[in-house]
Amino acid sequence: MLRLATILLAALLTLVGNSCTPFHPIMPNNVELNLGEVIGADVKQAFLSISTEEKWSLSIEYTSLEGVADWCRPSKSSGEGSANVLLSFGANTLEEERSLILTISFASSRKSLSVTQRSKYSTDAGDLSGWLELPAFAVDNERYYHSRHMLPSTGNRERSFSVYYDADYYLPLWVAYPLCSGNMDGIGIRTNDWGILDPNIPEEKQLYMKYSYQGSYDRGHMLPSASRLGSNDDNRQTFYPTNMTPQLSGLNQKKWAGIENQVRDWAYGCDTLYVVTGAVVQTAGGGEEVKYTYCKSDSSKQVAIPNYYYKALLQYRKPSTYQAIAIWLPHKAATGVATLNDVMTIDELEELTGLDFFVGLDDAIEARVESKTDNLYWRLQ
């Protein structure tokens, strides 16, 4: 019996070894979009990878925004075997997101992908991971908008600033930005390019700021012009009306200017200073009176006048040192720079504003740095 089994095994091995038809596993049919199933408003191209040994065909069904079609064009719509199909997208300049379904039909199966293209006027918090300066926020594309801007001097590869804009008040509630020496030391100059508009927010939601506000108010920058001198184009962005508030001349040109210089000095002393500059019309749960003014070029739009201003600051030094502090000012004429009387912890600022700052920080670091201030570290008197 043992000898018979040995003979049968040898015969089987001989048969396999002499076979002229090698074994090939069948490739499973699969499709994958290299950018994922959610793309940005300005994404122009993506690759659809098709893995198969069969013939296939591609169809597109537009599932939202009836009447807006053909914003996705494939380089080919059929083939045989694996392929990379180039998808070309039109920019979404509308206020709403739009979506489609890509269906790839094989001889033996079918695969579908739902693809959403974000609106020009909205953003996904997932796209902003690593932007430590950002507070938590939400947009609705009716009253609250988020507008982010990249640095032209870097070929738009690095971020410049983000604006959280209240279209009812015609006011940026905060502007957040990183600050380091490269932003302040460059070939740019103050352009004074008043009158341009933020390209990321509908024109009718903004003010034409060629001229200032009525009354004793300056066009007060939230992100200072002097903090973006990498190039003239970098500087020009700071003159968007979404970066302006009606600020009393006696504050803007005096203590506020002193604090802006103070902040730049702190930025020179570290690797990166993350800044949130905010305008507060009413504190969280507060009942402050809301007063209004107008810009001189358009008296039909009431602009809310902030009752307070603040700066939330997070300083980073390599390899892993963080310090944080907040500055809080009533909106009234004042001189000098920030002193011990003007500062508080980030936790205290969050109670006043109802905001959650520096949410991108590790939770343990955030809890530690937001609960205290080291006034000696910040050289405050």
What does this 3D model show about the protein?
- The chain has 381 residues and is an alpha+beta fold.
- The chain has two domains: 30-117, Immunoglobulins (Immunoglobulin-like, Sandwich), CATH 2.60.40.10; 125-370, Extracellular Endonuclease, subunit A (Extracellular Endonuclease, Chain A), CATH 3.40.570.
- The protein is built from six helices and 20 strands.
- CATH homology superfamily of the largest domain: Extracellular Endonuclease, subunit A
Helix content: 10-25%
> On the 0-100 scale, what is the average pLDDT?
87
Structural class: alpha+beta
- Distance between termini? 100 Å
Estimate the global geometry from the Cα principal axes. Answer: elongated
If you consult CATH, what is the topology of the largest domain? Extracellular Endonuclease, Chain A
Strand content: 25-35%
- Count every beta strand, where a strand is a DSSP E run of 2 or more residues: 20
Q: Please state the second-level CATH architecture of the largest domain.
A: 3-Layer(aba) Sandwich
How many distinct helices? Answer: 6
**Low-confidence blocks of residues:** 4-23
- Give the topology string: H per helix, E per strand: HEEEEEEEEEEEEHEHEHEEEEEEHH
| The CATH class of the largest domain | Alpha Beta
